[in-house]
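quick one
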Amino acid sequence: MTLAGRVAIVTGAARGLGREHALLLGAEGARVVVNDIDAEPAQMVVGEIVAAGGEAVAAPGDVATWETGEALVDLAVETYGDLHVLVNNAGNVADRLLVNMTEDDWDHVVRSHLKGHFVPTRWAAAYWRQRSKGGSEVRASVVCTTSTSGLVGNPGQSNYGAAKAGVAAFTVVAAAELGRYGVRVNAVAPLARTRLTESVPALAERMAPPSDPGAFDPWHPANVSPLVAWLASAGCEVTGKVFLAQGGKVELFRPWSVEATVEKDGRWTPAELGERLR
Ligand SMILES: NC(=O)c1ccc[n+]([C@@H]2O[C@H](COP(=O)([O-])OP(=O)(O)OC[C@H]3O[C@@H](n4cnc5c(N)ncnc54)[C@H](O)[C@@H]3O)[C@@H](O)[C@H]2O)c1
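structure w/ nicotinamide-adenine-dinucleotide:
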């Protein structure tokens, strides 16, 4: 596995999971573009990476805006000469039961995750296609962030779940399209204690740190980062997959697949289908 010399963008890297991904990529030798909509904590993460002997630059901005996506890729290439890794991690929640959900709750969450994945991937992919067509060997990796909320469903999160299911679909489509340019695309569904989970009382309690500070903390966000780092590495060959990571556990999700088929030589009537599909 090698991350040495690779140039990586991590979106939403000022805190939580993104911060841990950026710190680990930096510690493993990658040069990191630290994006977040919050400039000050993003700059602090840059300081941490540099203090640990790594290289990093801050790139504040809303990742769902077209200009920020382009600027992130430009900054990586201008500062470090290339781009190899994009970790799409930024996003937020606005949990509400469907009947109470506002248009803003829906738009804000769907935008940050879905458009927030699309925009930087679009600009990075254009860069990699140009490199590949110019004859350079591209060994690039995009790591997306989905959620069990989108893969198995979670009441109160119709906006977030729909967006995260969309991220899983986006991952599969992008992997199929970009493989020809040397780009792999995978997704990780993390489970970890962050600002996002601490805002939900039931989760905050379930994910509390262990009382023994020396014990393994199964909800620490840094537990997710080794999977992201491996997927980002030059030696990894996996593409189009969706994983879950929590504590010491990594799971590979099976894609949507056909469970049962009924078929006849002609068009069904509704009543016939009712008989067969009960
Ligand atoms: N924590 C979990 O258990 C869990 C579970 C499933 C999925 N996720 C996903 O993991 C990712 C990271 O979440 P987290 O738990 O670390 O939450 P977090 O709130 O700690 O971190 C998210 C970061 O993204 C930034 N951000 C939000 N919108 C942005 C935008 N438009 N542009 C740039 N930055 C933006 C925030 O400022 C914040 O720093 C999210 O995509 C989240 O949906 C987390």
